[in-house]
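Oidioi.mRNA.OKI2018_I69.PAR.g10349.t1.cds
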Amino acid sequence: MSNSFDRTLLFLGIAWVRTLCGLFIATTSISIPVLAHNVDSSLGTTSWMFTCRIFGAFVGGVLGSTFAKKANPNKLFAAATFVAAVALYWTPSITSLTVLLIVSFLFGVIHGLIDSIGQMIILNHALNPGRYILGFHALFTFGSILGALLIRIFLDPTLEQPCPNDPRHYQKLILLPDVLNSFQYAFILPAYALFAAVLMQLLQVCLNTYEKVDIPKTSMSNSSIVNEPIKPSNVFLSFYIITLFFAATSYQVTFSFLHPFTRCDHFLQVSSEESATNVIWYWLANMLGRFFVMYLLQKNYNVRTIFTCVSSLLVVIQLFLEFAPLSAYVFMALEDVCGFLLSGVIPLCIVYASSIFDLCDGYMWTIYVGCNLLCMFNPVGIGFWMTIDTRGFVHALLISCCSLFVFQQLMFCSAKTVKTPHAQSSSSSMSLKAASSALSIKI
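Tokens:
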């Protein structure tokens, strides 16, 4: 087989699994009212599954970057995909909170493995790694759209936990029957697709696809930073990490609790079906926003200006959502606009930092601390807040977006404390690895 065919087969398998990873994340986020119903727990308690998944993704990313250097990535990919397929198939039937948390952690590990290994393969074997990295992460968002669409198709509101303002909320819940129901198909169908992906990965192992694909290492030479190392001050790093934290929190609040909020808010009074449909539009706007931000960055527009405009618009929209008497459809449309804007806050923050100093020079830990470790317990706190007050979703989003704007400006002001032996590099000179990390954070 030609090298071109081997490369196509290799990247097709990666794309297949990456899309289904995004599908699982969106599916579990939208279906948390059903999962909470299944395990007979409150929204706040069930939200621990998000914390377990975030920590699992951190562990998986570390393991993936370590073991991929010692073993055939196709074999690791096949094993991770198989475990993910089993977890996906099993999830809608789980009636134990402990088991649900374990499965969430497990899928987080698998997600981290696939994310790190997939990027490593692309960086080593793609003729145009920058474009493939962008597609790699866009497929995750595309999978999220498919996941939201599947839940909308198979949604059965009678299986969802009653809202806190529903008199039935504190009644003993009737768990899912052992027989198959429509909701489970939203998990089972993509699980079968993952099993098919395992076969593709095993085929690549038999054909030694990974070993056959090779390109000259000079393909990445134009993407590396050639300036001398620049050392950021502790003040700048502190504000940068805090800005990342509030950027990740804002993003985390919306994609984790958008459906639980809109279906239960007594001001909106929309059905579960309408809420699930809005989530589809949210993820579509999120994907378009990601492409729009990358388009602006490729045009070499000022990163600081773009980032300021995005965060300012987010604050204005949150003030409208918090205080303006909006109709349900206007409210949900503004939530979707937030999805468009929020898709760029983490990449813009990382890209700005990479224009100040080389993130790959021993500072990649800042991304995972700000976007993963510090955000681990956000879902639990917000989940319990929404159990007490459904509008906690809006309050938390307003606080996080306002804090994002404040610490963003402090980060800009502290940039002058960065010790630069030469003039600051432009955003167009950021390393490919930093750009890849900007797109890869999935909280």
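Residues 234-264 form the longest helix (31 residues).
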